[in-house]
């Protein structure tokens, strides 16, 4: 008997779908209980890493034991399903809630282009934009390069509509998949976030040095602001600062946190004033 790992009823595909079923159940239960939250990670300025340019809001769900589950554990499974749309709605609602509460905040949220045109998601965004006239200019929407290229016309039309309302757009995970440069002429992304893999050991990895410089020069040619993702070591940050990256993001500057980091900063400022 031969074993075809791609066959529908192979042990491998059974194991994968078993995992998907579990993930779907967990997300559905979290949605029912509204156990969904954003974790916030700082994106700092390259030239002065003590200054925060904006925060990225990353979606989290709580599992049945109350553990915080990061997006990478479930987003792929739900992305093409209705649950993916509901998660994107909550990301907008939670993001807008934070923007309304903290007028100094600039925040990015992630979305799937599949949410464009989804009535509930469009309503959530519209309601958010109307809730305060400054929301649009403080909101950044991140779309991964691979998903933007799946539906270029839909995405570029949506971006034009939203950019008129002051919203900025970031091209996420730039360089991670196959990169089709011709689309840069059609899309007007304000920022590019260069995929984590290119920053890894960049101070010593000569391949990454060449690739990063090429990606940065393309971004600059198209007047896009650059963010390097996944910075974990000071040497990586120093190298990137020297080559003129605008912003840096990664565990070195702060892990994603479900307690709002700017609230901690504000209470530290208040404590310092009282001393
Ligand atoms: P992303 O937008 O590229 O987010 C960066 C991911 O890298 C996050 O994982 C973050 O926790 C992780 N990260 C941050 N700094 C470091 C670092 O220094 N080293 C390493 N190794 N990792 C780092 P997370 O939160 O699990 O999110 C995974 C992906 O899920 C995101 O990638 C984004 O594409 C997607 N996602 C997150 N929230 C949403 C959402 O609300 N809607 C949709 N559609 N997708 C989302
Ligand atoms: Mg992102
Ligand atoms: Mg990314």
From TrEMBL:
The cross-references to InterPro entries, in alphabetical order and at most eight, read:
Cyclic-di-GMP_PDE-like, EAL_dom, EAL_sf
Ranges for domain EAL: 20-270
Gene Ontology molecular function: any one: cyclic-guanylate-specific phosphodiesterase activity
Q: What is this protein called?
A: EAL domain, c-di-GMP-specific phosphodiesterase class I (Or its enzymatically inactive variant)
Q: Which Pfam families match?
A: EAL
Q: Which residues form the signal peptide?
A: none
Q: Which PROSITE patterns does this UniProt record tie to the protein? A: EAL (PS50883)
* Domain of life, source organism: Bacteria
């Amino acid at each position: 008997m031969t074993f075809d790992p791609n066959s529908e009823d192979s042990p491998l595909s059974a194991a994968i779908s078993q995992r998907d079923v579990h993930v779907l159940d967990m997300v559905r239960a979290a949605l029912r209980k509204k156990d969904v939250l954003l974790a916030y990670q700082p994106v700092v300025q390259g030239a002065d890493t003590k200054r925060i340019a904006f925060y990225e809001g990353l979606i989290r769900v709580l599992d049945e034991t109350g553990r915080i589950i990061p997006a990478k554990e479930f987003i792929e499974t739900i992305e093409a399903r209705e649950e993916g749309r509901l998660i994107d709605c909550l990301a907008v609602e939670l993001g807008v809630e934070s923007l309304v509460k903290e007028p100094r905040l600039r925040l990015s949220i992630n979305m799937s282009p599949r949410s464009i045109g989804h009535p509930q998601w469009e309503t959530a965004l519209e309601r958010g934009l109307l809730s305060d006239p400054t929301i649009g200019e403080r909101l950044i929407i991140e779309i991964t390069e691979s998903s933007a290229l799946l539906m270029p016309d839909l995405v570029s039309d949506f971006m034009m509509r939203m950019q008129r309302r002051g919203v900025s757009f970031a091209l996420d995970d730039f360089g991670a998949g196959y990169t089709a440069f011709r689309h840069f002429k059609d899309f007007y992304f304000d920022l590019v976030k260069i995929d984590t893999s290119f920053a890894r050991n960049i101070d010593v990895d000569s391949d990454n040095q060449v690739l990063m410089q090429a990606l940065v020069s393309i971004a600059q040619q198209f007047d896009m602001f650059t963010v390097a993702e996944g910075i974990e070591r000071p040497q990586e940050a120093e190298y990137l600062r020297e080559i003129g990256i605008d912003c840096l993001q990664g565990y070195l500057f702060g892990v994603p946190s479900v307690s709002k980091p700017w609230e901690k900063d504000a209470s530290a400022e208040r404590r310092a004033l009282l001393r």
